[in-house]
Fold each of these.
Amino acid sequence: MRIKLARSLGCRFPGLSLPQRQIRGRPRHEHSEPVPQHDPPPAAGAPSAPGRQRARVHPRPVTVVAWLHTWLTTQPQLRDSTRRSYQGHLRCHLRPRLRGMLLADLDAARLQQVFTGMLEAGMTEATVRRVYCTLRSALNAAVREQLITDNPARYLQVPAGHRPHAVIWTRRRVRDWQRTGDRPPVAVWTTSQTRRFLKTTARHRLHLAYRLIALRGLRRGEACGLRWADLDLDAGLAYITRQIQHIGGKLTDCPLKTPASRRAEALDRTTIAALREHRRAQHHDARARGIILSGYVFTAPDGGPLSPEHLTRTFNTLAANAGLPPVRLHDLRHGAATLMLLAGADLKAIADQLGHSSIVLTADTYLSVAIELGLAVAAATARLILRHGRRPPGGGHTRRRSPPPRAIVATRVSQLISCPA
């Protein structure tokens, strides 16, 4: 302890004279090697010590735009949709504002002006945040390549860009939309509105695709990529393993969005019966027209894979013809989470059915405030005084009701839709 204190005092106060530790009768400094006054230069090709990295000296200065292009072309692990997003950020936002600027001259003050200008130009906070994340990733790679010594993007003040929460199309919101034409960024149909849509589209060839999205929360690419080989109708399960996307102007069978998206969806009896009938009708139509089916559950008129864009355009037309307030096709997925909650599922079960890796995303994004839950608050409050009826004899704790299995949740969700308003 005394030696450590002496060392610390000697470092903090260089002029302080401290006794040397004796080693076999001689001061310790006589045994130690002489300390060089300056660090020796690193060997050729050896990396610099952490915290002392120096930028490489290039014969020609590197511009920010040139590095962004280089960085983007050397990222083979990016998903195609992510690559297209980065390309759009570079083409529409970064290249016009950073053209001609050298990478070595980039600093936090200039970048702050760039992103402040984006916000002043009317860009949403979420878009600005995504562009910022793209630039920050590219500059982090520049630091690793020793093109710059530090990433100036990490000092910027950019809004977090919180995603909008879903709201219910209540009667008041519907009247406001009909009067002003303004619609919420993310809106969810009520149970009766979802029931109305599925009833009016019951005879449409894509009705089952919309039913799976509305009741089980499939993404549109997952619905288009669903194959008959992925269905086990006897067990009542649909295995989500692939998705269809537009890549390079053509439909491509792609991996799912995340590893957690690979899941098994429970199907209710009504949906199972409808899928069996859909398969019989699909094969009958293919034999009558002499076309070869591609093996997908939902196909284009020629029997090939169905385009997600076609699924979206058809949905918008059908929703407008039904006289319903506007929602996006992806908003049916929001509503599916609410329907599962009303059916008695907990957050973990809903996150598993939606393919989320965490219930945080489920609670923050997809669980809109359902009207039916709001009306049940008074009844739940009254039940607080009746909890003793569920207490075990001689115990002071109430029994916790176990969450219903997935098959029961799927059946209850189906019943919510099939019950009359």
Note: The longest strand covers residues 243-247.
Amino acid sequence: MFEYKLEYTESSLINAFYRWDKFMQSVARICTKTLGIKYTAFETCSEKISLTIETQPIKAIPLNLPEADDTSEISFASGFSFEANDPRFGGWSGFDLNHQGKLVAVSDEGFALTADPKLDNLGQISGFENAIFSSLKNQNGEMLQGKNFTDAEDITVLPNGQLAVSFERDHRILVFNDILEPAVDTIALPQDMLDVFEQFSKVFQETGNRQYGNIGLEAITVLNGHLVAAIEEPLPNELEHRVYMQNNLGGWDNMYYQGLPGYGISSATTLPNGNILFLERNTEYFNSYEHYGVRVVEIDKNDFFANNHFTGKTWIQFEPTTGENFESIFCYTAKNGLTYVSLATDDNYAYSERNLFLNFEWKPQGITVTNSEMMEENLVYSPLIYNTSLEFPVIEMSLS
């Protein structure tokens, strides 16, 4: 397991402007709630607008060495913070790369983003180009409005290239051909999942504990051609998170994941070897504001299928003082064969938080890349191709 702390660069006037803008947004949000003053920062975006996204480099400093029994190698590669000059830009809760190699993202205020990833000479994402921003739209072509309907939490690419987006509050999964266009379908959720959400709602009404008032479908990914969905928290009287996977009959199979107490699942992705990664955060922070922890956990694909009760191995952990809201995880493979796992944060439109993007290089034991391959020019992202005819690995890397 690697443990890190983050260092930020505060050097530009434009970054200072963005921070001041966030501060004013925070003040406006307080006024909205306490004084009933209309706040228009989150007005919908009916058109597709072009944005210039500015970046600032950041560092992640390792605090320890990997454990001796680690079976995979993971190391920090690069990172940056990012902002755009639009008050609606932020709240990014889910990122992925579609089959055309474009970055696609969703915000928990109901916005969508596409961009061409800017790559460095090692194939790492170092910024965003040709960014397009718009509101998410339902199947009727209507822009999503109101927090109960805009709260998108994760996005994943389905085997046929469509995009699935999970929502909480109004719990659902919408399917898009293009994230900037209206949704084309809705995936029916399992009844057991809906029952769990109802139980959380009752606990919130009985206790008033806000932790239970916003529990939802936080994480989705694809394994062996089937959609996997995970609920953020276990029920108060349980230790295991509910996890669901679509089966060949069109229904869902129930599974149970036991993580660390106090940690909630915020996103998921699938590695080229078929193992699943959960991004987790210490949700006790949101009640106490005293400490915060983030970790990435690897779930072995064989454990996932062999037993419907499973746990995982901690891959990455950030020191508790890292007060950023890590919401998204996805992986991609560059043309040179290097695979990266990327984490992104949701700034919550708050002065004290940022939009961060971190790249970690993942290299299983036994796989090496030569210096000449690492310095290959004009690296182009080649998306992971899902092959549902294979048992394992469930994802093939296309390097051509």
Note: The chain is about 15% helix and 40% strand.
Amino acid sequence: MKSPRMLARVGMAALAVGCGAPSAPRYGELAVSADAPRATLSGRTHAVAGAEGLSPGCPGFLDPDVPEHVLHLASGGPFTLTARSTEGPLALAVAGHGEVRCDSDEGAGHAPHVTLEHAGDYAVHVAALASNGAFAYALSVTPGAGPSEAVDAATATAALTVLSNPPGAAVLDADGTLLGTTPAMFALSLGPGQIGRPATFTLRREGHADTQVQTTLNAGAVVLHAVLQPAAAPPDPDGSTDAGPAVALAGNPGVPGPRAGRPEPRRPTRPAPTPPVVLDPWSRPPSQPWPSLPPAPRLPTPRPLPRPQVLPFAPPRPTPPGTVISPWGPPTQPRPTPPAGTPATPGPSRSNRRPGTP
């Protein structure tokens, strides 16, 4: 059983929307009454900001300042608004009578709907569940209090979502009709004899093998998922393929040989590696012989060196006692001391000195 729809109570901003006239709509206005209870509108979502800016708790992305449609109910309901799109998941937010009612079809986004009971003006916002979604949609207005749990065979609809890994695969029905590209969302109208029958869809993507997904068509939401496998390699021009039977080599049945129908490719042969030459005997491997070195060249016989000449040793002459050794001249010997009683001989005067004598 589906969970009850979300009823969001808002503050003064929503009261102003409900009590005053709604803003000018983006796609137009619609009047519904008991005489004309059905209508269908269309448009495209504008994911400008989060829907919580319109009312806390509302899902999706929309333009909170400009509604997509304005609905005038001339008489009391109930009337049900239902939005559907084949391009992406949707959500509804309807403001009026001091409240904002939001729905996203339990998060699936296939057919969100809101039921209105009172006459008046309502601002209808159609939101996308993707932040960058610009999905074309169809908005229908029908009398009644929303879809019941009992399935009406004449108006049953199956909402399908087809996903693939990788995405971008074309979804084809049994007749080869293109229904969309994954991730694809589309609705199928089921006739009286189509409810419960199996349905097969083919996913086709370039570079991948065709993959089929199956389901049983019933009223409600169905999500299908498939993993695409890479396509097989194309055959060679000579008609042989890489998937031919392997031929075992003679004498060794466990080793597969060349593929049947095609020659074994020639591989270049590499020369056998030469063992390294080790010149250091301390690091010689045990299995490697000692290296052979060339003989050393013969050196000439050296000539004998001459014997050194021995000079006779001359002892130094003794220095007389009292010799004064001066660094500014040769050593000087002191004058002999005259015997006692010898008169002193006056020295030459300054006038009778010879030139050059001190």
Note: Residues 12-19 form the longest helix (8 residues).
Amino acid sequence: MAELNGRSPDEAEFVPTYEIAPGIKPGAWVFAPKSRGMATVNREDLTANRLLRLPSAPIRVEQGDNITLILENTHYFPHTIHLHGVDHAFSNNDGVPQTSERMTMPGEQHVYQLKPRHAGTMMYHCHVQVQAHMMMGLQGLFIVEENKPNNWVQTFNVGAGKVRAPSKGVLEDYVQEYDMHYQGIDTSLNNLIQTSNDPRQLAKKMHRIYDITDGSDDYFMLNGRSFPYTLRESLITVEPNQHTKLRLLNGTPDVIAFHPHGHKPTVTAYDGVEVNPANRIQRDVFTLSSAQRIDLDLYTKDDGLNSYGEGVWLVHDHAERAITTNGINPGGNVSQIVYRKYLNKNAMAKVEGVSLMPYFTPEYYQGEVPSWTESDPYGYWADVAGRDVSTLKDVLLIIVLGMLFGVVLLLLKALYACLQGLINKMTGEQS
């Protein structure tokens, strides 16, 4: 277990640091695969090492295997693991302190034993003070793959997103597979760990003072990042006439409305239970309640139903606040379905709209950059309080406006002279 962007008595900065978007480093906790080495890159670079990140890593096991899952509590609070939706025995194995087991205290470990009989997309999460610990990030996908001969599953998919080694069961029907874990961050909870490093103070603030019924998420993430970082890590890259398996988990406390542009996927499973082929629904908005999982078949046949054709198609939660970052749009859990012909040499989408570069700056999400700055060279929607002359366009604009002003003055002078001449002529005739 690990803490991200927490407070340390030894450092002025948060340790280890982890950005979900440019300049944004909220506090979080994660379940992480056991490894060796430091939590940071090195003693000077306090960035979290690549295994310590949001979301908690998706875990894959095979149906019918004997699984031993060991929780080593390297944290300062007690925790457990609840295998949500996964077939497991009750006694000392369900992760609920009030019913099945004692909490795993700091420095202790707990062994979970299971032999899942049913394949599907499940999840795991801490069941101690769930309203706080699960929302802090102690949650992840737990996938039970179908039992197949010589089926070497990819045990951890750190960072979620594309599964590098899909199982034989998946490859029978799909070309590729993606894990998509949606999460939210309420800074009034998550950033409490940045106010103190005393577990007693944090226990009171997080478990007795913080009230989730008054809470509201400020940041919205897909696979541990918010836009524009989702474009670097969570693109869904496809080819025409291809079946792609998507596994979605809603780890937020609210309902999400998953909406892919340009496509209508087909739902194949809810909460790890296969949908009868005759009852499978095809649509462009799928609603997921908190902790719900769905499996989708994204078929890229250009027939006007499954797909509208090749391009760069947006994917986002259509609950509109989820496409913002602390209220700034574009942000949140926005990503893209990108056909390979639209990828550049850096594996980024070749878009035909405005430049995305302003969104990769902390200033944009601090509200210091006007929303349409790339489409507004004359500053029609710029801040009212002054505008710096900083580009050639600004200089040319000032020159042109000065010339126009001069022409207007000359015209007014000529008009005045003409009127004055008429008046003098009329006065002379009357004389």
Note: Helices lie at 130-133, 168-171, 187-190, 199-209, 230-233, 362-365, 392-430.
